[in-house]
Amino acid sequence: MNATIVAGLLLALIAVAYRAGWSRSVSLAPAAGGRLHSRPVYHGALTALWALAPALLVLSLWALLADPASRAFILAQLPPDVAALDGQKLEEAVRRIRQIESGLGVAGGAAPFENAAAQALAEFRTLAFAAVVAAAAGTGALALLAARRRITARLRARNEVERIVGWLMIACSVVAILTTAGIVASLLAEAVRFFTFVNPADFFLGTVWRPGFSTTGHGAGGEYGLLPLLWGTLMVAAIAMLVALPIGLMAAIYLSQYARPKLRNAVKPAIEVLAGIPTIVYGFFALVSVGPFLASAGAALGLPIRATSALTAGVVMGIMIIPFISSLSDDIIRQVPKGLRDGSLGLGATQSETIRRVVLPAALPGIVGAFLLAVSRAIGETMIVVLAAGNSPFLRLNPGEPVSTVTVTIVNQLTGDTDFASPQSLVAFALGLTLFAMTLVLNVAALYIVRRYREQYE
After folding, report:
1. Which of 381, 397, 37 lies closest to 231, judged by CA?
2. In sequence order, what are the beta bridge partners of 403?
């Protein structure tokens, strides 16, 4: 409810401010002989931005201060003997009052002082929220009036709006960069803690994955060899790409070069439906249908194939990522200039020769990008591997045997009661950092391929 009120307030403020700025600039146009520096739309946008900024500032400050203010209010409502508690007991008392105020039950029933404090907290939050909304509306209205008074015929509203939008774009870029840096920093910090328990050489070069689970949070208590998990991840991803790359690329070539428009308009959406199916459904499909089929086919051919194996997970994962390659490659191939095709055909090349020697080299950078996206999707997949690969962290060359992957192991290590002071849980961050490094290597390799084989045309 509070979010709806805030959104309604901001939208109303933007609408009123935009209309006020627009009407003010229109009213000045006759006196200026119709020669305004900026169009009325820019004056309206500038007024709206001016009115929105202080309102957002007030709401942001309250978002930062709401929790500390609520905690201080709760502490003021506690009886002296409860307020004198220290550490965990005091935090537990504060938490119980918050739960009662939010409508959740508490164990053992609520004491009279807890009910009274919860009721007072609800009233405090209501009054505080009303005050914040009023302050945001008031500051926004004052800024609106100030911005409207600034409007003159020669006001460079367009320049100011473009400058503000430019700064907003820079801020969004900085947020994206800082988010990536924060993810890397968090993974790196926890991975460094893990390596205080386990030697990095034993982790990266170890061939045995047998983590122990400790309830005390001390001691490594097992073996943490990465190679079985890394091998399983690469094996499943390789099988998936062997399935998805030829089918996806050939489908893209057919749809973009050979198929009639009516057929293309029907087939392409049907292929893209595969991308919208939840991965858990693919996992059930692999477990119930594909796995038993591959096992029976292997038995008929005299090959040892288990129903839950790297082959089962890879085949189903390849089916899942076919749309990533086919749709992107189709769009990229269609962007190749038609003049290149016509020139090749005019020189006597056949359609297949034109595709091999002209179209595909010109579209190679985009196809590599589609391939990279598919590989990243395969490496990061979890649910299909959980259900179809067998979760067996051993080094095996036979793809018909069960394996485990890095993503599945991360889930296993962080499932249940987690103690982030033990290597049994911290190893998940080391595995996550390894996945990040693998993705980085893939990006660097793709960039090299694109620069090495890119075709440039005037």
Report:
1. 397
2. 390
Query: Tens digit of pLDDT for each residue in 288-312?
Result: 899 999 999 988 888 888 888 999 9
Beta bridge partners of 210: 223
Q: Exposure pattern of 253-269 as b/e (b: 16+ CB <10 Å)?
A: bebbbebeeeebeeebe
Q: Is the pLDDT of residue 216 over 50?
A: no
Q: Residue 205 and residue 425: Cα distance in Å, rounded?
A: 20
Q: How many CA atoms lie within 13 A of 93 on its CB side?
A: 22
Degrees to nearest 5, angle at CA 267 with 262 and 271 = 160
**Cβ proximity of 205 and 224 under 8 Å:** no
CATH architecture observed for domain 223-453: Orthogonal Bundle (1.10)
Contacts for 195-203 with beta carbons within 8 Å, 24 or more apart?
195/430, 197/423, 197/426, 198/224, 198/423, 198/427, 203/427, 203/430
User: b/e per residue, 13-32, with b = 16+ CB within 10 A?
Assistant: bbebbbebbbbbbeebeeee
- Residues forming a β-bridge with 209: 224
Six-digit token string for 290: 């594909």
Domain locations in the chain as residue ranges: 2-155, 223-453
Look-up of token digits 């994962």:
317
- What confidence tens digit (pLDDT) does each residue in 311-363 have? 999 999 999 999 889 988 888 888 888 888 888 888 888 888 998 888 888 88
CB 211 within 8 A of CB 220: no
Can you tell me the distance from the alpha carbon of 435 to that of 233, in angstroms, rounded to the nearest whole number? 10
User: What is residue 217's predicted lDDT score, i.e. its pLDDT?
Assistant: 47
What is the Cα–Cα distance from 422 to 218, expressed in whole angstroms?
6
Answer left, alpha or beta for residue 110, where phi above 0 means left and psi between -120 and 50 means alpha.
beta
What whole-number distance in Å separates Cα of residue 425 and Cα of residue 427? 5
Contact 406, 428 (CB under 8 A): no
Whole-angstrom CA distances from 369 to 149, 372, 453 are: 52, 5, 13
Rounded Cα gap, residues 349 and 334, in angstroms: 19
Phi/psi of residue 224, nearest 5 degrees: -125, 65
Q: What angle do CA 312, 316, 321 make, to 5 degrees?
A: 145
Instruction: Give CA–CA dist 375/354, Å, rounded.
Output: 28
| Tokens at 439, concatenated | 């993705």
pTM for this predicted structure: 0.71
pLDDT tens figures, 356-391: 888 888 888 888 888 888 888 888 888 888 888 888
